[in-house]
Amino acid sequence: MYTFICIFGILFSWVICLKTVTLPLRLPKKLLEEIDYLVKAGLYESRSEAMRDAVRRLIESRRLLLESHRYYRLRVEEAIASSKTPRLSPDKVIEEIRKIREELWRREKEYFAA
After folding, report:
1. What is the domain partition of the chain in residue ranges?
2. Could you give the 3-state DSSP secondary structure of residue 9?
């Protein structure tokens, strides 16, 4: 059984390697140094592994944002439908919410940059 698992793992790794693409990537030295520290600390086997993990986490977080966006769009549409105020388009309401969110993020960046 163990031999089967090992052979399957090797074959699976080989198939994954065939489907990878090499990308040229430019990073500031500070970020590369931080990645190297993570590798030296043993959290990752290589820079590539660290970058793959970072990209996976980015995609997961953005996917969650998209799902919540859909959820909030439905909530906005429901709120508009049940509101007694003049009707706005959901797109306008969502755009206003985005502007507020971006302003808050900008202020947060300025606060932590100081």
Report:
1. 25-113
2. helix
Alpha carbon 55 to its chain's center: 7
Quote the pLDDT of residue 71.
Answer: 73
* CA–CA separation, 41 and 86 (whole Å): 58
The larger pLDDT score, comparing residue 55 to residue 106, is at: 55
Write out pLDDT tens, residues 74-93.
777 787 778 777 777 778 87
Per DSSP, the three-state class of 40 is helix
Q: What is the pLDDT of residues 9-21, one digit of tens each?
A: 554 454 455 578 8
Question: Would you state the structure tokens that stand for residue 59, as one six-digit string?
Answer: 């995609």
What torsion, rounded to 10 degrees, do the Cα atoms 110, 73, 54, 28 define? -30
Instruction: Give dist(CA 99, CA 75) in Å, integer.
Output: 18
Side chain identity at residue 35, one-letter code = I
With tokens 């959901």, the residue in question is: 90
- The secondary structure of residue 84, as a DSSP letter, is S
Instruction: Copy the structure tokens of residue 105.
Output: 């993020």
Task: Give pLDDT, residue 54.
Answer: 92
